[in-house]
Amino acid sequence: MSKTQSVLLTCCCLVLVSLLTVLLFNIARLAPHTTPTIYIVITPTSSPVPPTFTAPPAPPSPTPSPPPTLYIPPTWTPTFTPSPSPTATPSPTRTPTPTKTPTPSITPSPLPPRRPTAIPVTPIAELEITMTQAYSGYLPVPIPTAVPRYPIPEDAITVVLLGSDQRPDWNYWNTDAIQYVVIYPDIPSVAVLSIPRDLYVYIPNMRMSRINTADLYGELYGFDGGGFGLLNQTLLYNLGITADYYAMVNFDGLMGLVDVLGGVDVPVHCQLHDYWPIPDENGEYHILTLEPGLHHMNGELALWYSRTRKTTNVFAREARQQQILEAMWRKAKQSNLLSILPSLYEQTRDLYQTDLGLDIILRLGIVAAQLDSTDVRFYNIGRNETQFYITGQGGNVYLPLWEPMAAVIDAAIKRPAESRAARAEIRIEVWNGTTLPDRDWLAADTLTRYGYTPIVNPADHLDYAQTQIVVFGSTAKGTGLSHIQQLFHVRDENVSYVDNPASDVKLRLILGADYDPCR
């Protein structure tokens, strides 16, 4: 096994089988270029969908289709497959409560009490904080007071995943990817909260600064616990949360991880275009356009996708990083990388920084093997939870808005609601009633992210003007109809009922020409 493969396998298994890989993507700004000369448009193809998955032609009548044989692509398959083959075996039915009994190779040790208490904060006046070279429009922001601490349940494991841009010859660095992970091993479930790197917060006893500088300050100034210690105090002061453990990697050479995995399938919901950062043989930079659809991405394209901001913003970029993370996790899980983790742990220990021991890593790996699609939830501190602000040096940052931000944090920390578990039992058939490619797979991705079980089948024809919903039953109770209408902007007049209580499919979602996956 090559060194690159060893790095890949360790990173993919470490912390829930490749949760670390969200840190592998350099999210620094793309270098500006002034004279683009070539435009490249990438349109989706059906190649990511295995040709062995077929579905019987759907009847033109509104009756339910036969038990479907076509499920979501392998990178979305919710069933754990111990075979290293990336081809998933479709199942005609969904078992509501599957038995999951992986056996650990060693006995996990009890979790230590690792949650710190808040440090005493020196009065601001005594810190002599000053702002120099302030630009003319600068409006000083007061130092905020500490927010209330969240009572994180004792049975939850929390890990902060950090992506650093540090280089061997650098004395300064930033942690430009910050993902806060909450794990409930007994359920099992995982929630991933993305924290913006440009969140402008109070670094306790230091200064107001971007949150991505806390690790640097902690190391440079000898804070108790180092960079992780100060970052934990910063999280506690400004967000009310702390992490039990941390894991950090830098960006050198990690683009190849996606390639070693054989690439990943990523549902692209919105058109993106930006400069391709690598010039051609003539030194010209191309403009790359990625159209909506299901795209198979190699390492370079996945890196570009995770860091581009030209047509979007920092919040959308963080959501795309989570998409890449999710795609890599599913690919790693299908490849059964867990089985070789113990032997790789010591071999590659010097390639990352973490205070997670091997026993905890294996325990988390077992949890990862048990996870289904509906067990993983993603949250973002985004535009609605922040306020744009320009610092005294003219930097563009975001101030946290506590009340809306608290609601997102609360949702990420809480144990999953029973209502979400119930959604997994709601099977929704998806038809692409248009000639546009992959619209059914994009809708399936949306349904999966909200906890439903999508089933993709061919439409009876491809000229539906408006999106429609067919309810198989005399009542919408227990079907999630109102939520599906909201997600896909379906009006009441485009909802019809077919009385068939025996159907295991609750709804049929027929995508029309009005369906916009970016909305």
- Amino- and carboxy-terminal Cα gap: 44 Å
Pairing-aware structural class of the strands and helices? alpha/beta
- What is the overall shape? globular
Count of DSSP strands: 20
Q: Any low-confidence stretches, pLDDT <50, length ≥5?
A: 1-37, 46-112, 124-134
**Whole-angstrom Rg:** 24 Å
SS strand fraction: 15-25%
Mean pLDDT: 75
Order of strands side by side in the largest beta sheet?
12-7-2-3-4-13
Q: How would you sum up the major sheet? A: 6 strands, mixed
Counted by DSSP, the helix tally is 13
State the helicity in percent bands: 10-25%
Outline the structure in words.
There is one protein chain. With 519 residues, the chain is an alpha/beta fold. Helix content is 25%, strand content 20%. The protein is built from 13 helices and 20 strands. The strands form six sheets. A six-stranded mixed β-sheet has the order 12-7-2-3-4-13. The protein has a five-stranded mixed β-sheet with strand order 17-16-20-18-19, with helices on one face. Helix 13 (481-488) links the parallel strand 18 and strand 19 (495-498). Helix 1 crosses helix 8, helix 3 packs across helix 4 and helix 6 packs antiparallel against helix 7 (314-334). The longest helix is centred in the middle third of the chain and has 21 residues, at 314-334. The protein is globular.
Keywords:
single chain, 519 residues, alpha/beta, six-stranded mixed β-sheet, five-stranded mixed β-sheet, 20 strands, globular, disordered N terminus
